[in-house]
Amino acid sequence: MGYILDEFENEIIREIKNTLDLDTKIDIPLEIPDEERGDFALPCFIFSKHLKKSPDHIAKNLVENIKLELGTAEQAGPYVNFKLDNRRLVKETIEKCLEYKESYGKYPNKDEKITLEHTSANPNGPLHVGRARNPIIGDTLVRVYEKMGFEVERQYFVNDIGRQMAIFTWGSLNIDEDGLPEPERDKIDYHMVRYYQKANSLLEENPDIEDEVRGIIHAMEQGDEDILKVFRRNAEKVLEGVTGSLKRLNIHLNSFKNESDFVVDGSVDELISKMDKTEYCEREDGALFFEKEGRRTFLTRDDGTNLYPARDLAYHVWKAERADSLLNVLGEDHKLHGEFLRNALNALDIDPIPEIVFYSFVSFEGQEMSTRKGIYVTLDDLMDTAQEKARDEILKRRDDLSDQEIEEISEKVGMGAVRFNIIKVQPEKPIDFKWEEALNFQGDTGPFIQYTYARSCGILNKSDEEITLEKVDLSKLKEEGEIKLIKTMAKFPKLLSGVQKQNSPHRLAKYGLELASEFNQFYRDHHVLKSRNKKKERILLVTAYKYVLKSLLDTLGIDAPESM
Fold first, then answer.
1. Measuring CA to CA, which residue among 247, 118, 298, 237 is closest to residue 557?
2. Are 382 and 130 spatial neighbours (Cβ–Cβ below 8 Å)?
3. For residues 363 and 8, what is the distance between their CA atoms, to the nearest angstrom?
């Protein structure tokens, strides 16, 4: 037996097809109506042409003849609304919560592997707030896909060659550390970014350096091992700092692939040779380009050296051989490149083609960020400020915690505020990052949800007995506030499925606020520990709720403190 809303939906679809004598393979587009109308709704317009009857007549026929065990059907003009039986809702939702505990919402393994690439920032300095959106979206989607039963390879494509890395490498080879400013932090990526920024500054002052940078690029793309060793060394040092910052946000990658690997092993040359034979490739002054629908993408220069699109294409061919599906998280400025990738892979008859989640830019207080110019707020600064803000808020409310407890809670709450503030915005919409919004601990925030989790833990900690299913009568849970809370809890598995299919992680944040608000409303309106006739049932409901909220917070990558 699966989750109750899935079971009810499957029953509805099966009975619609049986009643209307439809092909079993036809898609039945059930809608999610307003709460007062029911749990699912069917617009009957879609069947009018096929059945040669009016939508109202089809709806009436369905209601009169459909046979449901889990709920009821009611006609509303050309619609049929379906409502799940509350007793089944309560019993099966709470039972599933107690069975799966913190894994509530997880689906069986699909025996399907997806490679999900995120972050992949140029390793020339620390992550700034603008770049933080990529790993937070990517990691949240990783967690969603894992909940849905996929095997997920969390991959970082290390851009360890290219112009930016050539400038960085020139700086590391030609600039004395004594001539650099003090690093902002004693972290390796903060030490290394100074070379990149200083080299850019010198390049603007002395154009002759450009010839040296081009020489490095040429040597790199010809597979010069000495130059590549420097490139990789610099990239590895910066990545050490970057992954440390991501770890603090509960983001962990399990696969790294260097761009330079595809140059050294000949994959790029082989790829270029194959592309040259397709109908979409031509040459201009010796440079090979791919053109489709009037858009040109150059794969090589006129001297035959390869360009980033060729290397990234070779990388995607490699990925396609190792996974059943591919998903990339990219900034919106990569849309044309994403279109090129899909067209070029199709031209090569490569499958799977990557699905791409594009996200809009992040500015800080209205100002665009730039690592090259040194205009940015680092992710580390953001996390430190978030923790400090959290500590201040906790000290206002609690005077009974040890210093260690304050540090632990403030770290969890601060990181939760950062992740939630970024993931709650639909990827396609821009974010203007503002401290007062990101670190607001009231309202539509991560800390609000974390506080609700701590409240549920506090209730259970005060309970003086262990409650099990055998000791309760779940049919007592039938008041409006109880039903609304349980119905919200029951939505989580189906929500996860929808988020995965649409790659829409912001919906998790919206649901989290709804889940927390419903619980707080329930807690205000109903006694739990002081309930006269259903204390045990409500304690079990709070236990089940705690599991759902913990599972949601885990999916958001946010820690769940038991005390705040």
1. 247
2. no
3. 44
Beta-carbon contacts of 332 under 8 Å, excluding residues fewer than 6 positions away, are: 358, 359, 360, 361, 428
547 touches 102 (CB < 8 A): yes
Residue 295 contacts residue 137 (beta carbons within 8 Å): no
Count CB-CB contacts under 10 A for residue 142. Answer: 26
3-state secondary structure of 171: helix
Q: Helices 225-248 and 163-174 sit at what angle, rounded to 10 degrees?
A: 100
Token pair in block for residue 36: 């007062």
Give dist(CA 111, CA 259) in Å, integer: 29
The residue type at 548 = V
pLDDT tens for the chain, 564 residues: list them: 699 999 999 999 999 999 999 888 889 989 999 988 999 999 999 999 889 999 999 999 999 999 999 999 999 999 999 999 999 999 999 999 999 999 999 999 999 999 999 999 989 889 988 788 999 999 999 999 999 999 999 999 999 988 899 999 999 999 999 889 999 899 999 999 999 999 999 999 998 999 999 999 888 888 888 999 999 999 999 999 999 999 999 999 999 999 999 999 999 999 999 999 999 999 999 999 999 999 999 999 998 889 999 999 999 999 999 999 999 999 999 999 999 999 999 999 999 999 999 999 877 776 665 555 555 678 998 899 899 989 998 998 888 999 999 999 999 999 999 999 999 999 999 988 776 776 666 788 999 999 999 999 999 999 977 888 998 999 999 999 999 999 999 999 999 999 999 999 999 999 999 999 999 999 999 999 999 899 999 999 999 999 999 999 999 999 999 998
What is the number of helices (H) and of strands (E) in the chain? Answer: 20, 13
Concatenating the DSSP letter of every residue in 528-545 gives STT-SS-HHHHHHHHHHH
Cβ within 8 Å of residue 61, ≥6 positions away: 19, 20, 53
- Please name the fold of domain 4-84: Gyrase A; domain 2 (3.30.1360)
**118-364 has which fold?**
Rossmann fold (3.40.50)
Contact 172, 132 (CB under 8 A): no
Sign of dihedral through CA atoms 40, 503, 319, 342?
Answer: positive
Of residues 381, 383, 329, the one with CA closest to residue 354: 329
H runs (alpha helix) in 330-378: 335-347
Which residue's entry shows tokens 């060394």? 233
Cα(29)–Cα(247) distance, integer angstroms: 41
Q: Which of 37, 17, 38, 18 is nearest to 26 (CA)?
A: 17
- Would you state the structure tokens that stand for residue 24, as one six-digit string? 């079993």
- Residue 189 near residue 234 (C-beta atoms within 8 A): no
Which residue in 131, 140, 110, 92 sits closest to 238, CA to CA?
A: 131
What's the longest Cα–Cα distance across the chain?
Answer: 87
CATH code that applies to domain 386-555: 1.10.730.10
Two tokens, residue 240: 């050490």
**Rounded to whole angstroms, how far apart are CA atoms 510 and 177?**
48
* Domain parsing of the chain, residue ranges: 4-84, 118-364, 386-555
Which residue type is seen at 541?
Answer: L
